[in-house]
């Protein structure tokens, strides 16, 4: 095997794992869109907020410290303890569930039966509100996530594959964090699919996704199901926030990953959980491979910024429901 | 006719307004006796569906509300309850146009009907078998996505799904819609069997007056949001006005819509 070919494979592998990170964000969109028809613009901010909350809890930071100090004239910042990661993750999940409940109770409960565009606007409002709350609660400085996730290239993989393609090839460079992210994402997706397919609540979730009125008529509580999907989306956001946060620090720009998820959704379909994963992988591999083979040599590089959107555009023209989007059932 | 005169469901003079302005029901009252089949008849836009939805509390999501009157189930006012609370009380609606969950299989559809039940998997499995004995066709198609089954099968699925909640009363909206006459007959026969064997009471909204009055015990006729006539099904069937306006028959045999006299008489009747 020639070294060039092997480097190509390395690009594909790295693309696959970058794709998984996109997919993690897209997954949150899919969950909420499928069950409620709401395109949740706030998904990226939810990932940021979840990551901020996790860091804040782990470091024993006092939430709303600035506000408390301003009102009561105190000067507190930290509780003075460190919370172990497992417990902090558990508490963050609780916060995300509380957030899901609040969103349903204070916003969407009052917007039942409204136009999709109105629901979409509400999520934009929600995104900026949550961003503000995140700032107020935990401050706006860039944080590092000390979860102890492995970082850097995997020496083991590099050594194992060193010399495969002759002297020019030094082995695959694969980021350990990407490997962890891939594993976590696969477990998460398998869990979500099993939940949707084989449990009573999962079945109810799919029923609600199909027909709100009919779900109501058989006694499924829409509010309950919506709190459930927003909670699941919150948990997915937490995982995405952790993975992206570990990569590039927990900071405001984390919320912009939502935009990276859009082409993934166009490709995979807005209503398919496996579609989000496969779509993410295609985008990941596609943009890396395009950059490697055409972008860098001929177009001056930086094609990764726009390639995904072009691909999504092409897909929109030829297959608007995406690869795995639910087929619109039309009986003849 | 059912012997018991116990009233299960009582609708007292309800008024329903959509979007705060459109008055759809202008004081509808009716009684559904235990163990009977009660038909709610009338043309398009008469208010049949709205009446059923006012009872099952499905109006809210369509921006409608009951502004006057009351709905009493077993002596208890229920118009403030959520649809799921009502399902738990034993009242379930089968909506007009089937409304199966298209992407779920027939069996999954039926199982969603048991969502509110808390009596364990064995009881649910037993009821699934019960539904399959009434609707053998559903058993054949139980692994197919509901969206790909025929209209008749979807109607059966919708009724079966309602049965899975172990209801005391089923509000059945327009079961004949879009079905061949033979299938309509089949569905109504099953409704009758369910009524007799399982003791389920039905409130049935139907445009097909002929079939409905053959299977029902008593009926109400709705016109523009008001009850204009009520009585035992047999009597309604013999009523000359019903015969003329709903069954398309008169003393002189079949009549044409162009008949001006009939139109005038109907106008007077409605006023």
TrEMBL record, chain A:
<dbReference type="GO" id="GO:0006865">
    <property type="term" value="P:amino acid transport"/>
</dbReference>
<keyword id="KW-0812">Transmembrane</keyword>
<keyword id="KW-0029">Amino-acid transport</keyword>
<dbReference type="GO" id="GO:0005886">
    <property type="term" value="C:plasma membrane"/>
</dbReference>
<feature type="transmembrane region" description="Helical">
    <location>
        <begin position="38"/>
        <end position="58"/>
    </location>
</feature>
<protein>
    <submittedName>
        <fullName>Branched-chain amino acid ABC transporter, permease protein</fullName>
    </submittedName>
</protein>
<feature type="transmembrane region" description="Helical">
    <location>
        <begin position="179"/>
        <end position="198"/>
    </location>
</feature>
<dbReference type="GO" id="GO:0022857">
    <property type="term" value="F:transmembrane transporter activity"/>
</dbReference>
<keyword id="KW-0813">Transport</keyword>
<dbReference type="InterPro" id="IPR052157">
    <property type="entry name" value="BCAA_transport_permease"/>
</dbReference>
<feature type="transmembrane region" description="Helical">
    <location>
        <begin position="117"/>
        <end position="138"/>
    </location>
</feature>
<feature type="transmembrane region" description="Helical">
    <location>
        <begin position="264"/>
        <end position="286"/>
    </location>
</feature>
<feature type="transmembrane region" description="Helical">
    <location>
        <begin position="12"/>
        <end position="32"/>
    </location>
</feature>
<feature type="transmembrane region" description="Helical">
    <location>
        <begin position="79"/>
        <end position="102"/>
    </location>
</feature>
<keyword id="KW-1133">Transmembrane helix</keyword>
<feature type="transmembrane region" description="Helical">
    <location>
        <begin position="306"/>
        <end position="324"/>
    </location>
</feature>
<feature type="transmembrane region" description="Helical">
    <location>
        <begin position="218"/>
        <end position="244"/>
    </location>
</feature>
<keyword id="KW-1003">Cell membrane</keyword>
<dbReference type="InterPro" id="IPR001851">
    <property type="entry name" value="ABC_transp_permease"/>
</dbReference>
<keyword id="KW-0472">Membrane</keyword>
<dbReference type="Pfam" id="PF02653">
    <property type="entry name" value="BPD_transp_2"/>
</dbReference>
<comment type="similarity">
    <text>Belongs to the binding-protein-dependent transport system permease family. LivHM subfamily.</text>
</comment>
Automatic annotation (TrEMBL), chain B:
<keyword id="KW-0547">Nucleotide-binding</keyword>
<dbReference type="InterPro" id="IPR052156">
    <property type="entry name" value="BCAA_Transport_ATP-bd_LivF"/>
</dbReference>
<dbReference type="InterPro" id="IPR003439">
    <property type="entry name" value="ABC_transporter-like_ATP-bd"/>
</dbReference>
<protein>
    <submittedName>
        <fullName>Branched-chain amino acid ABC transporter, ATP-binding protein</fullName>
    </submittedName>
</protein>
<keyword id="KW-0029">Amino-acid transport</keyword>
<dbReference type="GO" id="GO:0005524">
    <property type="term" value="F:ATP binding"/>
</dbReference>
<keyword id="KW-0813">Transport</keyword>
<dbReference type="GO" id="GO:0015658">
    <property type="term" value="F:branched-chain amino acid transmembrane transporter activity"/>
</dbReference>
<dbReference type="InterPro" id="IPR003593">
    <property type="entry name" value="AAA+_ATPase"/>
</dbReference>
<dbReference type="GO" id="GO:0015807">
    <property type="term" value="P:L-amino acid transport"/>
</dbReference>
<comment type="similarity">
    <text>Belongs to the ABC transporter superfamily.</text>
</comment>
<dbReference type="GO" id="GO:0016887">
    <property type="term" value="F:ATP hydrolysis activity"/>
</dbReference>
<feature type="domain" description="ABC transporter">
    <location>
        <begin position="9"/>
        <end position="249"/>
    </location>
</feature>
<dbReference type="InterPro" id="IPR027417">
    <property type="entry name" value="P-loop_NTPase"/>
</dbReference>
<keyword id="KW-0067">ATP-binding</keyword>
<dbReference type="Pfam" id="PF00005">
    <property type="entry name" value="ABC_tran"/>
</dbReference>
């Amino acid at each position: 095997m020639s070294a060039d070919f092997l480097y190509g494979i390395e690009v594909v592998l790295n693309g696959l794992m970058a794709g998984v990170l996109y997919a993690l964000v897209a997954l949150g969109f899919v969950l909420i869109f499928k069950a409620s028809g709401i395109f949740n613009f706030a998904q990226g901010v939810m990932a940021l907020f979840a990551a901020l909350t996790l860091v804040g809890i782990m470091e024993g930071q006092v939430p709303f410290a600035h506000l408390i100090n301003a009102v009561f004239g105190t000067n507190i910042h930290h509780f003075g303890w460190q919370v172990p990661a497992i417990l902090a993750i558990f508490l963050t999940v609780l916060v995300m569930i509380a957030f899901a409940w609040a969103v349903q109770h204070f916003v969407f409960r009052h917007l039942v039966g409204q136009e999709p565009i109105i629901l979409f606007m509400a999520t934009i409002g929600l995104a900026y509100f949550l961003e503000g709350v995140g700032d107020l609660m935990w401050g706006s400085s860039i944080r590092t996530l000390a979860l102890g996730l492995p970082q850097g290239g995997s020496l083991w993989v590099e050594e194992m594959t060193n010399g495969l393609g002759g002297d020019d090839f030094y082995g695959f460079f694969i980021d350990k964090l990407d490997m962890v992210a891939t594993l976590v994402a696969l477990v998460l997706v398998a869990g979500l699919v099993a939940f949707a397919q084989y449990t009573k609540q999962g079945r109810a979730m799919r029923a609600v996704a199909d027909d709100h009125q009919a779900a109501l008529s058989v006694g499924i509580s829409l509010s309950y199901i919506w709190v459930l999907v927003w909670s699941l989306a919150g948990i997915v956001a937490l995982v995405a926030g952790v993975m992206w946060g570990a990569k590039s620090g927990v900071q405001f720009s984390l919320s912009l990953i939502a935009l990276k998820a859009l082409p993934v959704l166009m490709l995979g379909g807005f209503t398919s959980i496996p579609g989000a994963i496969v779509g993410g992988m295609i985008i990941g591999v596609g943009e890396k491979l395009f950059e490697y083979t055409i972008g860098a040599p001929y177009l001056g590089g930086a094609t990764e910024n726009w390639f995904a959107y072009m691909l999504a555009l092409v897909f929109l023209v030829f297959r608007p429901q995406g690869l795995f989007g639910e087929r619109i059932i039309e009986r003849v | 006719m059912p012997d018991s005169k116990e009233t299960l469901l009582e609708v007292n003079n309800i008024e329903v307004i959509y979007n705060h302005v459109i008055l759809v029901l202008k004081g509808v009252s009716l009684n559904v006796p235990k163990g009977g089949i009660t038909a709610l008849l009338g043309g398009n836009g008469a208010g049949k569906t709205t009446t059923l939805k006012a009872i099952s509390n499905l109006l809210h999501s369509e921006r409608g509300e009951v502004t006057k009157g009351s709905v009493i189930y077993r002596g208890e006012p229920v118009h403030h309850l959520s649809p799921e609370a009502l399902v738990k009380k034993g009242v379930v609606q089968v909506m007009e146009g089937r409304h199966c969950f298209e992407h779920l299989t027939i069996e999954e559809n039926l199982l969603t009907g048991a969502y509110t039940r808390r009596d364990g998997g064995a009881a649910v499995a037993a009821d699934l078998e019960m539904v399959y004995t009434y609707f053998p066709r559903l058993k054949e198609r139980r692994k197919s996505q509901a969206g790909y089954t025929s209209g008749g099968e979807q109607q059966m699925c919708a009724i079966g799904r309602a049965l899975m909640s172990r209801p005391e009363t089923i509000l059945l909206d327009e079961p004949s819609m879009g079905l061949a006459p033979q299938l309509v007959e089949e569905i109504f026969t099953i409704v009758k069997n369910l009524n007799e064997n399982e003791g389920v009471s039905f409130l049935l909204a139907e445009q097909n007056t002929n079939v409905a009055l053959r299977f029902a015990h008593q009926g109400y006729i709705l016109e523009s949001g008001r009850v204009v006539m009520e009585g035992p099904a047999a009597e309604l069937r013999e009523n000359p006005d019903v015969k003329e306006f709903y069954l398309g028959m008169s003393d002189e045999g079949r009549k044409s819509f162009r008949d001006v006299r009939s139109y005038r008489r109907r106008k007077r009747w409605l006023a």
